Amino acid sequence: VKLAAEKIGDRKLTASSSSCLECICIVKDPHRVLHVATKAVDGVKSPLVHEALLVWIKTFSVNFGLAALSQGVKDVLVWILKECENNNMKVKNSARDVLGEMYTQLGPVLESFVKSSDVSSSVSSLVERVFKDNAHDPNANQVERKLKCVTMSSSNGPKGGSGRGGNASSMLAVPTTDLMSALKSDCLDRMNDTGDKKSWRN
Q: Where in this protein does the record put region Disordered (predicted)?
């Protein structure tokens, strides 16, 4: 996986590297494959490699469906958001294309996740444009996919893909805050204080 990811930007090896990664995803956990691939590309400076892997990830998303990644979608998304900050315009555009496909499949839950994440204002603006330019397909997880991971298929899942199924919210959990634990212990006492005309400030 590491070698295929590192060579995917080589024009002579792009097709074979892409095919290699695809074949591995059929027989191994796609989440693990993409984790190793993105880590490998992080160590490569050439923008061609980053661009090529992003193009492949979009193809993966279409052919396997994001359901093949299950909760591993989060790790891939975090990496893609980081690539949105790349100075190379081709890399940035490829990242936008992947986000567009992800939004088609995940919809509002993806938007909520990005808004709750610590991203720069420029990335936030870029992502908002992507969401406006792409329509969410509520039935995306039920679409029959071209490829599937044979080691993770089940009779309960959608045709194609990994067979895991699951809706968007189960694949991408939005960070939450326990409001009760965030309140100070004397909050209720201060709210009930009506001792003077300035008590409302508490």
A: 151-171
How far apart CA 69 and CA 146 sit, in angstroms, is 15
Segment among 27-36, 45-54, 86-95, 184-193 with least mean pLDDT: 184-193
Dihedral of CA 128/73/148/7: which sign?
Answer: positive
Percentages of the chain per state (helix, strand, coil), in multiples of 5 = 60, 0, 40
Q: Name the residue range of residue 69's domain.
A: 2-172
C-beta separation of 106 from 66 below 8 A = yes
User: Looking at the domain assignment, is residue 157 inside a domain?
Assistant: yes
Q: How far apart are CA 186 and CA 106, in angstroms?
A: 41
User: Does any domain span residue 195?
Assistant: no
Q: How far apart are CA 141 and CA 1, in angstroms?
A: 26
**Residue 187: inside a domain:** no
Measured distance CA(63)–CA(58) in Å, rounded: 9
- Residue pair 65/25 in contact by the 8 Å Cβ criterion: no
In angstroms, the CA 132 to CA 126 distance is 10
Domain count, the chain: 1
The single-letter DSSP state of residue 69 is G
Q: Out of 44-58, 91-105, 168-182, 184-198, which region has the weakest mean confidence (pLDDT)?
A: 168-182
Average pLDDT over residues 164-174: 54
Domain of 101, CATH number, reads 1.25.10.10
Q: How many CB atoms lie within 10 A of CB 123?
A: 18
